[in-house]
C-alpha cells in the first residue's frame, strides 16, 4: 500500500499548467524527493497534497484518504515545513509550539513533554522564551521542523527545507532528519534544487514545467546519462559545435556560455579533444554523472544552486521590505 | 471539545499579542480621547441641543463606537497579515473546522474591542456623566455585542481582500462611512433618505444607540438623543451578529481553498 498516490494530477492557473498531469506513488517510510528548477511545480504539488489547493483534475490520496473529499483526515496525517516561513514572529518559540499542539488536540501533558523534547532535539531549548522575531533564519527553520513533527505525522512534507541555511546548519538538519527517520516510521516528501540533498533520497522525481520527466533511485537516474560529461569553454562556441560533430561525431550542446557533451571515456577523450579541435579550448572539466548532469541530459538546462541562492536572497529582501512597510 | 480548544487557542493568540503591545493599546486609546477633546469640546461651542447637555457627552457613545469599530476591524484584518506572512497556512492545514477558526477570531476581536471600550469608560466621571454601575455594565454588554458584529464583518472582508494594499481602501470606503453613518455625531433620524437607509442597516447605529441609553441622562425628547428603544437595539445587534458570523464562516471557508 502506498502512503501517497497521485494520478494524473493537474493544477491550472489560467493558461498556465503549474502541475501538468503528474502520477507517482510513495511507499511508507520512503524518503521521496522532488527535484526541479524554479517554477517547476514543486510547491504547487505539495499544496495540492496538503489540501491547501484543489486540483483542476486528477486524483491524489494520502494515507488512504482522498485529498479533496476527506481533507480533514489528510490533515491529521501530515506535517509540513513550508517553503516560506509560517511562524508567528510575535510569539515566542514555545508559544508557537503550544499553539500547534492545541490545533492538533494533543493533550496538555503530552504536549508539554513533546515540546520540551523537540526543542531539545533542534537545539532551541535555551531560546524557547524568546520571540521568534529575534531568531536567525536557521533557528526559524529548525523551530518549524520541530513544530511540523510535534503531532507525529505519518508524512512530513519538506519544501526546500534547507533554503537560506549555511552549509553547517544544512548538515546539522540532515543529521537530525536521518536520526528521526531511524527512530520512527515516517515518510518524508521533500523538494529541493540542491543536488547533494537529492542524492540522499530513496527515490527522486525530476520535475520540469509541471511534468515528471524522470523517476527513480539516484543510481537509476544517473545511469540515464551514458558516460561522463565534459564541460568546455572555447574561443568560439559557434564554430566549436559543428567542428566537434565533424571530428568526433558527438553532439555538443551549449548551456550558459559553456559547451557540454557526453562521452564514454572522459580522461582519454580530453587530450584528443584539445589536439584535434580547430578552435582554441579555454577550459575543460570532466564530471562523473551527478543529478545535475541528469537534469542537463533530460532538459538541456542546468539546475543551478547558485541561482536558487540569489533568488532566495531576493525573496527574503522583498519579504523584509513588506514587513517593514506594515 | 476539540473545536472548543481550537476556538480558545485562536482567541488566546490574538489576545496575548494585544496585551503584549502596550504602545498599540495606548495609540488606540489616544484617538478617541483626542476626538473627545478637540471635536467634542470644539463643536460644543456650535452645536447646541437646547437642553443644556454639552456636546462632548453626546459624542461619548459615538467615540466608544469608533474605538470598537477600529479595534474589532483591526483584529479581524489580522487574517490578511496572517495570509501575507504565511501563518494562515499553519492554521489551514491543521485538522480544525473552519468555523472554529472564525469563532476564535471573532471572539478575540470582541474581547479586544470591549476591553478598550471599558478602559474608555473610565472617562465617564470626567465628562460630567452620571456614574451608574448598572449603566456601565449595560454599555459594556452593548459594546461587546457591537464588537461581535463588527469582528464578524471584518472577517468577511478579510476573507475577500488578498493584499495589505487594499487596507487603505477599506479604511476609506468602509470604516469611515460606517462611523459617520452611525449616529455617532448626529442622530440618524435626521439623515436624508439614501444615507438614512444605510445608517439603519449599520450595526454601529444600534450599538451606539444602546450605549446612549445606558450612559447618558437625557431629558425626554432631546434633539440629540436616542433613535430607537433599547430592546430593539439589542435585538438588531444579536440578529446581525448571528447573520454576520454565519456569513463570515462561509466567506472564510470559501477563501481557504482555491
Ligand atoms: N497562485 C498562483 N497564481 C498563478 N500562478 C501561480 C500561482 N502559484 C504558482 N503559480 C505558478 O505555477 C508555477 C509553479 O510554481 P511552484 O511554486 O509550484 O514552483 P516551484 O517548483 O515550487 O518553484 P520554486 O523552486 O521557485 O519554489 C510557476 O510558474 C508559478 O508562477
Ligand atoms: Mg517552491
Account of the 3D structure:
The complex is a heterodimer of chains A (326) and B (258). Chain A has a 6-stranded mixed sheet with strand order 6-7-8-3-9-10, with helices on both faces. A 4-stranded antiparallel sheet of chain A has the order 2-1-4-5, with helices on one face. In chain A, strands 12-13-11-14 form a 4-stranded antiparallel sheet. Chain A starts with a strand and ends with a helix. Helices cover 41% and strands 26% of the residues of chain A. Mean pLDDT of chain A is 86; it is low at 305-309. Chain A has 326 residues and is of the alpha/beta class. Chain B has 258 residues and is mainly α. Chain B contains 10 helices and no strands. Chain B starts with a helix and ends with a helix. Classes of the chains: A alpha/beta (326), B mainly alpha (258). Residues 42-43, 83, 159 of chain A line the site of magnesium ion.
H/I helix tally of chain A? 12
Give the names of the bound compounds: adenosine-5'-triphosphate, magnesium ion
SS elements, strand count of chain B: 0
Placed side by side, the strands forming the largest sheet of chain A appear as 6-7-8-3-9-10
- Low-pLDDT stretches of chain B are none
Order of helices and strands of chain B: HHHHHHHHHH
The total domain count of chain B is 1
Low-confidence stretches of chain A: 305-309
- Percent of residues in helices of chain A: 40-55%
Instruction: Give the N-to-C terminal Cα separation of chain A.
Output: 48 Å
**What string, H for helix and E for strand, traces the elements of chain A in order?**
EEEHEEHEHHHEHEHEEHEHEEHEHH
Amino acid at each position: 500500500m502506498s502512503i501517497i498516490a497521485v494520478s494524473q494530477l493537474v493544477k491550472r492557473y489560467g493558461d498556465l499548467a503549474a502541475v501538468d498531469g503528474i502520477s507517482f506513488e510513495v511507499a511508507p517510510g520512503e524518503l521521496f524527493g522532488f527535484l526541479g528548477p524554479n517554477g517547476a511545480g514543486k510547491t504547487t504539488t505539495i499544496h495540492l497534497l496538503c489540501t491547501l489547493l484543489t486540483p483542476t483534475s486528477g486524483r491524489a490520496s494520502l494515507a488512504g484518504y482522498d485529498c479533496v473529499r476527506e481533507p480533514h483526515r489528510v490533515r491529521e496525517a501530515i506535517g509540513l515545513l513550508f517553503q516560506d516561513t509560517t511562524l508567528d514572529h510575535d510569539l515566542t518559540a514555545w508559544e508557537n509550539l503550544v499553539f500547534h499542539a492545541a490545533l492538533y488536540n494533543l493533550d496538555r501533558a503530552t504536549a508539554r513533554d513533546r515540546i520540551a523534547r523537540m526543542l531539545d532535539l533542534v537545539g532551541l531549548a535555551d531560546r524557547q522564551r524568546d520571540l521568534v522575531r529575534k531568531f536567525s533564519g536557521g533557528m526559524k527553520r529548525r523551530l518549524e521542523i520541530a513544530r511540523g513533527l510535534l503531532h507525529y505525522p505519518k508524512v512530513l512534507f519538506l519544501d526546500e527545507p534547507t533554503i537560506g541555511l549555511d552549509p553547517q546548519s544544512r548538515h546539522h538538519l540532515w543529521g537530525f532528519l536521518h536520526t528521526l527517520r531511524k527512530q520512527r516510521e515516517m515518510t518524508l516528501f521533500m523538494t529541493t534544487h540542491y543536488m547533494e540533498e537529492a542524492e540522499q533520497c530513496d527515490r527522486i522525481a525530476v520535475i520540469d514545467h509541471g511534468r515528471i520527466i524522470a523517476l527513480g533511485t539516484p543510481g537509476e537516474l544517473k545511469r540515464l546519462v551514458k558516460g561522463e560529461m565534459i564541460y568546455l569553454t572555447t574561443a568560439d562556441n559557434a564554430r566549436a559545435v559543428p567542428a566537434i560533430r565533424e571530428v568526433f561525431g558527438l553532439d555538443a550542446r551549449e548551456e550558459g556560455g559553456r559547451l557540454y557533451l557526453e562521452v564514454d571515456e572522459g580522461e582519454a577523450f580530453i587530450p584528443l579533444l584539445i589536439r584535434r579541435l580547430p578552435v582554441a579550448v579555454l577550459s575543460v572539466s570532466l564530471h562523473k554523472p551527478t543529478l545535475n548532469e541528469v537534469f542537463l541530459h533530460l532538459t538541456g538546462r542546468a539546475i543551478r544552486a547558485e541561482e536558487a541562492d540569489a533568488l532566495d536572497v531576493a525573496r527574503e529582501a522583498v519579504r523584509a521590505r513588506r514587513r517593514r512597510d506594515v | 471539545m476539540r473545536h472548543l480548544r481550537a476556538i480558545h487557542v485562536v482567541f488566546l493568540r490574538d489576545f496575548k499579542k494585544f496585551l503584549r503591545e502596550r504602545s498599540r493599546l495606548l495609540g488606540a486609546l489616544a484617538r478617541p480621547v483626542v476626538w473627545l477633546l478637540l471635536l467634542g469640546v470644539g463643536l460644543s461651542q456650535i452645536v447646541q441641543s437646547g437642553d443644556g447637555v454639552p456636546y462632548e457627552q453626546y459624542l461619548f457613545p459615538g467615540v466608544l463606537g469608533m474605538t470598537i469599530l477600529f479595534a474589532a476591524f483591526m483584529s479581524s484584518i489580522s487574517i490578511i497579515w496572517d495570509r501575507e506572512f504565511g501563518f494562515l497556512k499553519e492554521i489551514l492545514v491543521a485538522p480544525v473546522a473552519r468555523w472554529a477558526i472564525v469563532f476564535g477570531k471573532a471572539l478575540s476581536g470582541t474581547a479586544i474591542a470591549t476591553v478598550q471600550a471599558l478602559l474608555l469608560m473610565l472617562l465617564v466621571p470626567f465628562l460630567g456623566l452620571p456614574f451608574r454601575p448598572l449603566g456601565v455594565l449595560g454599555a459594556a454588554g452593548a459594546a461587546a455585542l457591537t464588537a461581535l458584529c463588527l469582528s464578524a464583518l471584518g472577517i468577511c472582508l478579510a476573507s475577500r481582500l488578498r493584499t495589505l494594499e487594499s487596507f487603505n481602501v477599506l479604511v476609506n470606503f468602509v470604516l469611515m462611512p460606517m462611523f459617520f453613518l452611525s449616529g455617532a455625531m448626529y442622530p440618524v433620524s435626521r439623515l436624508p433618505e439614501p444615507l438614512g437607509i444605510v445608517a439603519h442597516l449599520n450595526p454601529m447605529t444600534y450599538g451606539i444607540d444602546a450605549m446612549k441609553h445606558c450612559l447618558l441622562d437625557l431629558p425626554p425628547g432631546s434633539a440629540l438623543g436616542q433613535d430607537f428603544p433599547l430592546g430593539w437595539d439589542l435585538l438588531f445587534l444579536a440578529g446581525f451578529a448571528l447573520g454576520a458570523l454565519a456569513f463570515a464562516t462561509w466567506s472564510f471557508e470559501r477563501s481557504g481553498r482555491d
